[in-house]
Fold each of these.
Amino acid sequence: MRTQILLRVLGALALALVGWQIGSVIELPQLPVPLAPILAAVGGILGLLFTPWLIGEPFQRLRKTVRQVPAQQLIAATIGLLIGLIIAALTSLPLSFLPQPFGAVLPFVSLVLFGYLGVWTTVTRERDFFALLGGRIGREGFAKAATERSVLLDTSVIIDGRVADISRTGFIEGTMLIPRFVLAELQHIADSPDALRRNRGRRGLEMLNKLQKESLAPIKISDLDVEEVREVDDKLVRLAKKLHCAIMTNDYNLNRVAELQDVRVLNINELAGAVRAIVLPGEGMQVQIVQEGKELGQGVGYLDDGTMVVVDNAKKFIGSVIDVTVTRMLQTNQGRMIFAAPADDKK
């Protein structure tokens, strides 16, 4: 909010100054008042109204794009831009001696052209570019530094979709790597004749598209592969060991196999369990009873995070929201279960 107010004030001052300068140059004798104050007032009003729209929104989009670009590409683009601007500066002097209007236009054209070519060249050939630098920022050294904080995404976690919500929170700071063999598996699942698998594959592709548009963490499609292995899970584990990075998954079997090979695993299910609300016996809450429990007279409800709440003597309240008092909490392999009793229960 403060940023928008500051932008409006600065925009109003800048456009008011421009309006004053224009009004000072233009002379209209038929006007009863000087033109400069009128144009300054108009410029100030336009600055107050449109500065956030002209500057604020593009700045926010640029900020989001920069946060999503991997550091290696950002450094390569910056170096390429500097090289392009140096070349443009060297060519602008001889171009300025050309007959008008070429002498005035071509130096600016060369500035844009060589700047763009410099960025495009270094970004598209970034691996070769950094390899030529040699030393600690050569290909091996830079690749290791760039992947230390990277996270490999497997097929199951993309289909699950919760990683898209997590990525928008900013908790994932490293680059999220998606190998092409994972994309190939998603495509294979999406083309499956089985309706359930086909829907899962299409959901995975939709989630991947959502990730690329909304994630605050950089997303990179990697061409790295492990040719001697055919199974996708084995490829992920081998690749994670090679890159010294973690695997994000919610696949139980992949989780155990990776841990046995000393590969760090970020499990979405474990994260969801860790951030669930902690309740203590005697605390009160409201819950909607949605179904009958296993035991006689029990009712079952769920919290917003999916935690099951089993309420004694609540079968008669199915379909209603009631106040309950927590009696105990049980941790299981499937998650937490909360046992409670109606708050007005006299027992």
Amino acid sequence: MVFLLEDNTYLHLAFVTGHNSKKAMLKCVGYDVRLYERDERLIHTVIIYTADVKEKPNPLNIGTLTYDPNVLLMADYNGNNTFTELENKIKAGQELSDADILKFVLLPLMNHTLPPYELASSTIELAKTIPDPTKREACVAATFAFASKHLDETDREKLMGVIKVIICVSLKPI
């Protein structure tokens, strides 16, 4: 994902599962080079590794070019605590901040004790209790998008069923 920032530079977010860091780095540097070649804007790259990656990968060094993007290891984030914090905030009727929404979005990638399908399903169930419909829909969609990348086809279908139930329940006759 690439965002144009206020200072006219790009923020390139890459999400990586597994720990083939060399392949991930090559893919990202290639993308950054093509983006720079096209627009000649500075690029700030952040590679977000899922919880299965426990150590920061080494920078890519191919001689005259060294590629050392910012790295965010989701293994460093306790998904159990984050889920509980979000749940408590929603139950207390507190407004979710932008940082809270980001936590929701990244929750499926964090270190967690639940199996991936249960985590995704529980997160979607929690998201459907968010009073603000825009934030609710964003959290449901983002949770599904991120979680589905890590689920097998059977679990993706089950998760889609959870979302369909939410959609059907939220629709009201005219």
Amino acid sequence: MNERIAVLMGGFSAEREVSLASGAAVAAALEGAGYAVATIDVRRDLMTLIGGLEAVAPKVVFNALHGRFGEDGRIQGVLDIMKLPYTHSGVLASALAMDKPAAKRVFAAVGIPVAEGRVVPRLEVLRGDVLARPYVLKPLNEGSSVGVRIVRQGDNSNPFGEEDWPFGDQVLAESFIPGREITVAVMGDRALGATEITSDRGFYDYTAKYAAGGSRHLVPAPLPADAYQEALALALKAHQALGCRGVSRADLRYDDTEPGRAGRFVMLEVNTQPGMTPTSLVPELAAHAGLSFGQLVTWMVENAECDA
């Protein structure tokens, strides 16, 4: 094969370490599939990045970056300008998905259920409750549950101090949705399957996602048959509504906590560049659907695009 692929990894977001793991796993899998692979550890130096890409002259760029500046449309715009096809979504879909309030408006417009909430100034949060408890506070544009806080009944302290919020002056406040954590992988025009995630931490936060033993993945998710299909349909609808391409992962809550009442789904977010190690959620679901990790990343390379 010998086609040259550049894998972008690392970056300078809060998810740098996760991206390095994804990039290393992807590079190894692509080399195993016969590609000539060059890895580029992306730093906050645009000229060095452009020079590195020009030196490699790849046929395709595999974007294994996570978080801000890597999956929010900015790197995608650079690759479009350079006319380099890349994996995952383009500029607009990436920017919409990363901006949680904007994504929620898109979801609501096409009939996908979302949690009630509003964007509030950080100072308003410091003064007291901004929603009826329990509720959730989130940065507007971070991934991997970075910065997420849950305000529960009986909590007596502010969720963060005046200096303990390095995510800007605005906060997304949402009603807390009880129930089960469900995630669905989408690949092109089909949903691969759904996973239920459980954690002894009580909340699927950054540590639960990435620390050894922090969470358990139930594949396929043990949902009623009709609910399972609804989860897949909602994920595909969200992928399409945002204009995503390639692979994405939708995170939902399934509230089945009220006896005698049918469960309901609420869309939390769509991750346009989910974790890509062999034990990450999307590769797990791909394996359940009969695709090896090597087959998954090869498909992503073969379906790479740019908007040049």
Amino acid sequence: MNRTIRIAAATAAGVGCLAGASSAFATATGSGATFPAVAYQNWCGTFKSCSYTGVGSSAGIRALTAKTVDFAGSDATLTDAQLAAIGGRVSYFPTLLGAITVPVNIAGVTGNKLKLSGKEVADIFQGTITTWNNPVLVKSNPVLKNATGTITLCVRSDGSGTSWNFSRYLTKMSPAFATAISFSQTPNWPASAIKSAGNPGVANCVKSNANSVGYVDLADAIRAGLQTNVTAIGKSELVKQGGKTKRKLVYVLPSAKSIEAAGSIKVSQIKPDLTIDFTGSSNAGAYPITITTWVLAVPGRAKNGEVKGVLGQFYSPEAQGALVGLGFAPLPKNVLNVAKVAASKLG
């Protein structure tokens, strides 16, 4: 049994708060990305120092701008307009690594059987490939030969960091996608796509519609019972064969192990503002749609002392150690160390 499936039981049961944790910090409020909401709500409940509501990255950024929350959760960096509205300054604090999965609902296709290259995923979400029995897909997936139904796309209706990262990855895979759909918190999806709020909404769309496909964080895919319906995504890797090193298309499923592999970067690759992009990793065994997500804070805000305390708890061994059971992976050690230093300077 792969690790994706093993972590399902703990998450589906609703992983409890970490035992023995306590806090002397006043409560800080946060809202935003649904991608890390499972982890943030678990941690806030554990340490009793914060509250968090998953409303989408764009909505969280608006709330932080309006000063109705003390911190925002976002999987996307701010646009120029968002940055101007917030006063021109914001700090990014990465908190975890996660996978954007591509779950499907196709009769007769279960058990992580489907294999798609990044280019094929881009063509599907661009609307260039419209049926599952398209010869391009059948070549790698003979099981799709008789899947004649039109593909239903399930996408986000709200401004979303998951959409931002997913579309960013797909623009790397396909110049045509970049032109037609765009890399954005609100991509220009085909008009026929079904739009739903939040990652849980997209997961429910996939479950409710035959011949559908969506993009959902691994934690919400597991909570929705879609963990055996996520696809293996193809990526180019150097593989040793017959004493020679050759470049080959390797298909990788999302799991704690493959997420962690994507997070293996050098200190020199960590950007000073911590806006690190893990998508499209060429690391061996890395799941290619791995992302980080950030707690956003505005320097100079009155409750940044409380936010600093919350970040310290999020970066604790207890919190980071709970992530695999929640469908995520902990921050790489070198990223965690840099993030801790940055958090200590928040004022």
